[in-house]
Every structure is written in structure tokens, then in C-alpha cells.
Amino acid sequence: MKSLCVYCSSSDRLEPKYYAAATELGEELGRRQWTLVYGGGKTGLMGALARGVKSSGGRVVGVIPEFMKVRELEFAEADELICVLTMRERKMLMETRADAFLALPGGWGTLEELLEILTLAHLEVLHRPVVIFNQDGYYDDLLRLFDRIVGEKFMHDTIRTKYAVARTVAEIIPLIEGWNRQPGDAKWFQTR
Fold it and tell me: Which DSSP string corresponds to 7-64?
């Protein structure tokens, strides 16, 4: 069984297409009997994803800070709901419980989580798949920034080997399953 850590938005004000994609992904994870490891929320893409996993018989592990649980934002139907004190503790537990990482569209929290995982991969501390779901070009500007970072020599172009980019939900699982990068191997790279 695999576990996928997914970073994503908790906003309930998004266009329906984002919730539909999160639900579709969740249903696919459930069908494959993969465990979802995520932020434990019931709203936004978090909630759509978790409900999708549960609807197809998958396992959901939520890691939620106490201050969010107090606000009754937790997904109570999770198979395992871990309550922590800080966001840092949350990220650490999510990282240790995951075989792979995926960023769906999101805000500052999602970006912060994604960039921390990419930094760990860059430092060769983390050797697991990282996929960015660039739904309808949502992350185009971030990917252009990555190109500029390389172009202006703030980082070597090997950073591009630390992640793959999916344009559709159907591309996500094959990118994770096809990941076989070893430390120092610069062969695994999916263009946007």
C-alpha cells in the first residue's frame, strides 16, 4: 500500500473545476487502496479530496493543528486524525507518513509546504516523488519563477529533477509510479 501526502487549499470559494479534480483524484486513490495523508480539513479541496478517498473505500489520515480542530474544521470521518500543536509539527508528521507528495492548487500554506519538500529533495534529504498538479496552468507563474531561478544561477538546473508536473488528474499516478530517481540522478524530469 502506498501513502500520498497531498497539499491543497481549504477554501470553499473556488471554481467548481478544482473540487471536481480533487474528488476525482480522491476516488482514484481509494480505488488503488492508497492512503491519503493530508492536513485533516473538511473544507475546500481538502474536504473534496478526503470525501473522494472515503467514497471509494480508501484510507484517510489527517494531521490537524489543535487551533483548527477547535474551530471544528477537521474531517471527522478520517480513519486516523492526528491532532498536533503547531504547523511545523503537522508538516513533519505528514512528511514522515508519506511515500510521495503532491501539490494541488492552493494558497500560501500549500506553497510553503511544497517549497519545503522541494528544498528537502534538493538537499538530498528526501528521495521520494514530488508532483505539482498544474491544473489549467495554475502553477505556470511558479514554474516560470523556477526557470528564472535557474536562468539567473541561483540554483543549478538539476532542481528540475526534483519534481514532475501533471496537467491532468490522469497523469498524477503514473508520474508517481514511474519515479525511480536515485540520489544524484538527474534523469527523472517531466516538462510542464
Answer: E----S-S-HHHHHHHHHHHHHHHHTTPEEEE--BSSHHHHHHHHHHHHTT-EEEEEE
Q: Does any domain span residue 51?
A: yes
Element of type H or E holding 92: helix 87-96
- Residue 184 belongs to a domain: no
Query: How far apart are the C-alpha atoms of 25 and 170, rounded to whole Å?
Result: 8
* Each residue's pLDDT expressed in tens, for the chain with a length of 192 residues: 599 999 999 999 999 999 999 999 999 999 999 999 999 999 999 999 999 999 999 999 999 999 988 787 899 999 999 999 999 999 999 999 999 999 999 999 999 999 999 999 999 999 999 999 999 999 999 999 999 999 999 999 999 999 999 999 999 999 999 997 544 444 444 433
**Structural domains counted in the chain:** 1
135 domain-assigned? yes
Q: Structural domain of residue 34, as residue ranges?
A: 3-177
Has this prediction a pTM greater than 0.85? yes
End-to-end CA distance of the chain: 28
Task: Please tell me the distance from the alpha carbon of residue 185 to that of residue 37, in angstroms, as a whole number.
Answer: 27
Q: What is the CATH number of the domain that holds 107?
A: 3.40.50.450
Domain assignment of residue 185, yes or no: no
